[in-house]
Amino acid sequence: MEQLNPMSPLLVTCLPEGSEWSYQLKWDGFRILASCEEGQVQLFSKQMSDKTEIYPEITQALQHKTGRFVIDGEAVVLDPVTGNPSFQRMQQRDKLHDSGAIRRAVQSHPVHYMIFDLLYADGEDLRHLPFVQRAARLISLTQDWKAPLYRCEQYDDAEILWDWVDSHKFEGVIAKRNQSVYGQGKDHQDWFKRKTVHRSTVQIIGILMKEGRISSLVMCHNGQYHGRVSSGLNGSIKQSLSVLETTNSADHYFDTWPEGVRNQDVRWLRNLLQAEVEGRELTAAELLRHPRIISIEGVNHDRSRQAKDRRK
Fold first, then answer.
1. Helix axis angle, 56-63 relative to 99-108, nearest 10°?
2. What are the residue boundaries of the ATP-dependent DNA ligase family profile domain, all occurrences included (predicted)?
3. Spatial separation of the C-alpha atoms in residues 182 and 7, rounded to whole Å
4. How far apart are CA 123 and CA 175, in angstroms?
């Protein structure tokens, strides 16, 4: 298969609306391209790494399909309790390379393939066709397909779909312009994504240093290590934190140092700080994925205000 740069949606905080748009669920997994030619199947990652042997359940399911086609979709592992995609479990599956471990994982953490685009069919390049036409061809191709192969549904009401996603704690919604061709990467204005966020109040208990500078902060939630956060950590916050009283001992917070900060240069705060943060989701270990600082109680966030205060 030729080298491809899969079309990727652009992140926005508000989705476009109107009759020219269609909407789909955003699945929290790994992007996979599948090339199929009369039972000969190859799977590729977004970076075009070969994943054919990594996901045998997808490969074997596609081997039974006739015709020649290339499809685009997302490989996901579902949480057995919530039924939602689990990015953490998907990461664990993708790291397996031993054939025995993969066979066992197929039984314990099976991968499902959520298909949302058709790029080639019977030797014809469909990427120049509008999305609605490619979607219609995909429906025709996949109408009798069964698990673990699923075609992503399309919706015409962004608000209703977003409310469902938000209440069911899915990753987000993708908006696609009905007349859009299949472009390269993010060089377009035709696909957009909006993600849900997990907000929580945490305690900042430590400051991680790198080469003598503040690099990130240690979070705690309900007495448990909650991860590290650096996004949203600007110069004003760092300056405010640099004057706080710290210690080299974590005894005030933990009996043993959490794995995420072991062998790191951590300055533990003598007095913790309350903070508001947001992130993608909580892992099974209660760590916040992709955290970002919203605010820290008692810490100056505004550089311009800090400069004015110095001039007074």
1. 80
2. 104-237
3. 6
4. 28
- Strands 30-37, 68-77: parallel, antiparallel or unpaired by DSSP? antiparallel
pLDDT in tens, 131-171: 999 999 999 999 999 999 999 999 999 999 999 999 998 99
Backbone angles phi, psi at 242, to 5 degrees: -65, -20
Q: Answer whether 22's CB lies under 8 Å from 155's CB.
A: yes
| Domains of the chain, earliest start first | 9-23+157-196 (3.30.1490.70), 28-151 (3.30.470.30), 198-311 (2.40.50.140)
**Tens digits of per-residue pLDDT, 242-291?**
999 999 888 889 888 888 898 899 999 999 999 999 887 777 788 888 89
Q: What distances in angstroms separate CA 276 from CA 119, 279, 297, one per listed residue? A: 43, 11, 8
pTM value is 0.76
Which residue do the tokens 């030729």 mark?
2
Q: Which residue has the tokens 């298969």?
A: 1
Cis status, amide bond into 148, omega within 30 of 0: yes
Secondary structure element (H or E) that encloses residue 62, with its range: helix 56-63
